Amino acid sequence: MGAINELFSKDLMPVNLGMDMFREDLEAQGIPAVQVKWNPPAGGDQRLIEALAKIGDNEAVDRANDRTIEIMMSSKLVLTGVSRAIDVVPGMTEKTILHAGPPIRYEDMPGPMKGAVIGALIYEGLADGPEAAARLAVSGEITYSPCHDHQMVGAMTGVTSAHMLVHVVKNETYGNYAFSTVHEGSGYTVQRYGSWDEGVIRRLKWLDSEFRPVLNDALVRAGGIDAGATISQALHMSDECHNRNKASSVLFYKQILPHLLRSEYDKETILRVSEFINGNEHYHLSITMAASKAQLDAATGVENSTIVTALARNGKDFGIKVSGMGKDKWFTGPAQLVDGLFFPGFSQADSTPDMGDSAISETAGLGGFSLGNAPAIVQFVGGTVSDAMSYVKKMYEITWSENRNYTIPFLNFRGTPAGVDIRKVIETGILPIITTGIAHKERGRGQIGAGIANPPLECFEKAILEFADRFES
After folding, report:
1. Which of 9, 257, 458, 460 could form a disulfide with 425 if both were Cys (CB 3.0 to 4.6 A apart)?
2. How far apart are CA 304 and CA 285, in angstroms?
3. In 3D, which of 228, 189, 395 has the Cα closest to residue 311?
4. Residue 82 and residue 295: Cα distance in Å, rounded?
5. Angle between helix 212-222 and helix 246-262 axes, rounded to 10 deg
6. Within 10 Å of residue 226's Cβ, how many Cβ atoms?
7. How far is CA 383 from CA 12, 231, 345, 414, 432, in A?
8. pLDDT tens digits for 175-221?
């Protein structure tokens, strides 16, 4: 009893797990207490707990996840050119429209995506105006399909038609390709936000007719450009490579300009192409997206792997893909409104729910997962610099590994969190953090803010339950 008496003769510091009321009662008696935030694994849901028990600590799953991460890390990602979608994107036809996020019907698309579809049909010459395009869009003649199901990714609406220009990135290690539409530039009147006015159509035609052959000539002269190396360097220059792409775009411009100048095109043509790239501080986002898609597609289909290979949203649904569940399987839940900062005159009431394929960046360990590299971006998406570092540290709790190719100087060059593991998301209840732009709910109104978004937990719950049902231990 002596030890017990000694213990209770000293000041105690109680630690409370669970309801705050116990800590409050102690403090009301003048006894300080530490409150530990704790929730039961899987939120106490018996079905999810049983799924975790089956696959949560399993050597076969762990080995598969190690293999998935190794594929991601060993991928060499090279920009080889720009092409018309119909010439390179698998499954693309004259009457195919690809879109961001999981599958969606035209009737269910948000305003900006419908507008982008109408613009695409006008651009392709399939309709002579918006009324005719709207009729064609619901006629049954047009095939709608997710970009992700065709080795593609697209920013915001992601709407891509046959003759739109895409960046082509080759995963030289594994031989697969991925594609992303060329970034049109900033502003309200761009096709990816649902505009179809004359200037938008004219820009798309110029990208195909003049920009495409000139840039391809320069890329051939360059022997391709190592996109992975560019991303890695940009992270050390205060990009997070999703909402902030200033450094990566400047690095790309620096690499491509000498080869543009060596081409045999006339001075004015070279100047127009050069100014288009140099004047677009988000130009490299499209390249980053294609590079991220190329490494994650290579890592798809690893049997028993619980690593997420796609995070995508269409303004109605949020969808994820999981390596061990194959390339065609989506797990969906409702898309969320983005919590962020709005441009003057706008509020969340004006916004479209979360939309776009650009969260492929986070899936690869960029964007919200590398937010600690880009302290300046908190002025754009909200929060503080310490918040940015806190977000990154949280992401380590739900990822299987770290990205040795993408590092964070402020954390002594620790690799960014890599490989979102559905087991860890369910166990902790922590959701992936995505930095994103906010689109106006009406077509053609453009970006009205930026902020932080999360997938719904429902996506991960569906994934782990089906994974556990299929799993043979």
Report:
1. 460
2. 31
3. 395
4. 18
5. 90
6. 18
7. 36, 24, 20, 23, 17
8. 999 999 999 987 668 889 888 888 899 999 999 999 999 999 999 99
